[in-house]
Every structure is written in C-alpha cells, then in structure tokens.
Amino acid sequence: MADEPLVLGIETSCDETGVGIVRGHTLLADAVASSVDEHARYGGVVPEVASRAHLEAMIPTIQRALKEAGVSASDLDGIAVTAGPGLAGALLVGVSAAKAYAYALGKPLYGVNHLASHICVDQLEHGALPEPTMALLVSGGHSSLLLSTDITSDVRPLGATIDDAAGEAFDKVARVLNLGFPGGPVIDRWAREGNPDAIAFPRGLTGPRDAPYDFSFSGLKTAVARWIEAKRNAGEEVPVADVSASFQEAVVDVLTRKAIRACKDEGVEHLMIGGGVAANSRLRALAEERCEAAGITLRVPRPKLCTDNGAMVAALGAEMVARDRAPSDWDLSADSSLPVTEPHVPGTSHAHDHTHGHGHGHTHEHVHEVSAGNLHGA
Ligand code: KG4
Ligand code: ZN
Could you tell me the domains of the chain? Predict the structure, then answer.
C-alpha cells in the first residue's frame, strides 16, 4: 500500500554491507556486498578489513538498492541504520552514512538494534509478527532466546550463550576439518551425506540444574576437536560427513529443545528463528518437526533474509515509523554493545521535529552544508 512507510535500511555491523528498502511489510530491494572472501584466509572477520570494505561498498550499494526498488531517495519516509551491537568501526561507517543521507535529504533517522532487526525481518516474509513472539537468534556473533510483545519497544532476553555463539561453533569445527570459512554452509552440505547418530557429542547445559534457556557450545567444539585429533593420531581417516552430521545434530537438538521449552513455559504459541544459522537445513527441519508436535507455529525467513542484510534494518525502521516511535538524534553514535532490550535509540532532543512528515521545510538550509549531490557522485 502506498501509504505504508517507505524506509531505507543500512546494515554494517559485521562483514556484510547491506542496504534494503521496504514499504511497510513489503521488500522492495535487498542489496548486499560482502567482504567475506577477504576474511576467509584469516578464518574469521578482521574488523579493520570489514570497515574499509564497508566504506568502499556503501555508496554503490545504496545506489543499487534505490535502483532495484525503483524509488528515489527523496521519496523515503526515513532512514534506518544498525546502531549496534556489532564491530565498533564497522558500525560507525553505516551510522555515518545514514546520518549524512538523512540530514542531506531531510529525513528522520532511526538507529536500530541489530538483534531486533533479525526478528523483524520476518514481517517481510510472513506478514505482521504475532505478539508475543519467541525468537531464537543464532548467528556467528549471537545465540539468544528473546521474547517480544512489540518489536519496536519490548524485547526481553530469556537466555543466551555463555561462551561461543552457535555460528562460531560451526566456523571453528569447520576450521578443524579444514573446510574453510564460513563453516556453517559447508558443514550443512557435508552433514547431508553423514549419520547424525554416528558419534555421541555432548549437549551443553541440558542437565536438570543448568540454566534452562542458556546455551554453551565451547565444550561441544572441544569434544569434536579432540575426537578428530584422536582419529588423526591413530592414523585413521576422519569421516567428515559423520562428524559434520553428528556435530550439527548436537547443536540443533539443543537449540530447538530450549526454544520450545521457553515457548511452553511462557505460554507463547509462535516461534521465529533468525540469524545466519537459521539458514541451516537440519535446524529448519527439526524445528518444524518439534514445533508441530508441540502445537507451536514456526516462522523462519528464507535464508537470504536470515543472514545479515539491510532489509531487516529497513523492516524495523518501517515499523518504527508505523508505530510513531521517536527518531534518533543527529548525534546518534554506534554502540558496539547496545543492549538487546533497546530495539532502537530514540532521540532526547527535538532536533528532528522539522523532519517529521513528508515536508522538506527548513532542511533546505542544511542541504548546502552536506551536499546530497556530492554523496551521490562519489
Ligand atoms: O547472521 P550472520 O550472517 O552474521 C552474524 O551476525 O554473525 O551469521 C553468520 C553465521 C556464520 O557463523 C555462518 O557459519 C553461519 O551463520 N551459517 C550457518 C549456515 N549458513 C550460515 N550455520 C549453519 N548452517 C548454515 N547453513
Ligand atoms: Zn546478525
């Protein structure tokens, strides 16, 4: 619908430069430039390399998204950007770009939370988020169980990993198996040829006295590494497919078990799974099976919306506009440890009042200072 908010979202919290454009719950563009290949030889994301890549990719990616969406920057109702959590230097590039564009164009700026965005993106796939929704967020940087009654204002953490993130465990096991980086997609592929019951790897924090919603993957990672080392020391071949399948099963078994338990304990009927690891085929299948048995409706966005992207930021920004949340101030800063309980960074001053609505009012004066022409032409 034409009266739904048209928002551009910028994501630079890790190694993906994402720019998405949405109108309400409709995805119009999802442009992503990834520097993942530049990090592959280091086996992990190098912050300085990521920041530089964001800087180079930013303007071309914004232009690509506008072209893909078939809209002009002046049509936008707001610009949203990941304010945190993430890599400080990488976030800074996105926040600076968003501010420059918003200021030059006279649009409200919304600094939003990366984790809440991972949840909100599902609106682009399955429509309005049910309230409440339980979210299992699993990626290279985070693994959490979150309960939200309103994605723009209320996100409550129930549990999180106490050591490695789920994606990190995939990446580390892949490294021990010499499968390259990132590890998730390769292990997912190898696991299809293997037996998930071949090796009994530990299920972390699943004892009766353990925190019911917290996760731990570092013991599992060590157990896998030891098992592989023992094979190699004995001069035996490492069965990559069976190790992949058994390791993956241990991860997804724990993730789904805890997520469903949280839904049951809290009386929540809707579970969404987001973050890069939600692209995992076995996680999707097992979650489907267990949710069905428990009478829970499962929502998982398509893989491209699960990994980091700008559309998720735009989706949350559009929801902020739709629910009339206060825009951020011009001195919005990148916050590498922005708490998950803060879906966005509302402004305290009235610096944004003149940018409300569709009028361009006083902002003409500012356009001379931060030239939109220069930004586009660079
Ligand atoms: O959300 P994301 O793109 O970036 C972060 O915020 O971390 O997630 C990347 C993580 C990596 O650890 C990667 O190995 C993992 O998601 N991943 C997968 C799969 N695809 C990506 N893990 C398991 N199975 C997959 N198919
Ligand atoms: Zn992420």
Answer: 6-121+309-374 (3.30.420.40), 131-301 (3.30.420.40)
